[in-house]
Amino acid sequence: MDWLLLIAAGCMEIIFALSLKYNEGFTKLLPSLVTAITGGSSFYLLMLAIKTLPLGTAYAVWTGMGAVGVAIIGIVLFKESMDIFRLISIAFVIFGIAGLKLTDMY
User: Fold this and answer.
1) Nearest-CA neighbor of 49 among 102, 101, 106, 99?
2) Residue 105 confidence (pLDDT) above 70
3) What are phi and psi of 85, to 5 degrees?
């Protein structure tokens, strides 16, 4: 259950970060509401997850999910660079997240 909470927190973090692009300095109501709700939800779910998961692992996974998710969505939606070094860097973050998950299993 703790890992599901953390994954949900990471998904909320991705939506939160993306909504920042659309709220235009909190001048647009709907994107601003999405920013507030998903930001709060992300922190709340992370808070629940760290009750049982190691803090360092949970925080690294949460931030890594957000970074990778936003980077990939940026490539797809905003036509951001698909430079090989960027893709390799994203892969390293994914491997790091997987490694942290594996260390929690033992």
Assistant:
1) 101
2) no
3) -70, -35
Radius of gyration of the chain (CA): 15
Q: Which residues of 40-78 are buried (b: 16+ CB within 10 A; e: fewer)?
A: ebbeebbebbbeebeeebbbbbbebbbbbbbbebbbeee
**Residue 16 near residue 42, CB atoms below 8 Å:** yes
Look up the domain containing 91 and give its range.
Answer: 2-105
User: Domain count of the chain?
Assistant: 1
Contact yes or no for 49/9 (Cβ under 8 A): yes
Contacts of 13 (CB under 8 A, 6+ apart): 38, 42, 62, 63, 65, 66, 69
Question: Which pLDDT tens digit goes with each residue over 41-62?
Answer: 999 999 999 999 999 999 999 9
pTM score, whole prediction: 0.89
Give CA separation, 70 vs 23, 31, 55, 79, 83, in Å. Answer: 16, 16, 22, 12, 16
Beta strand spans in the chain (E): none
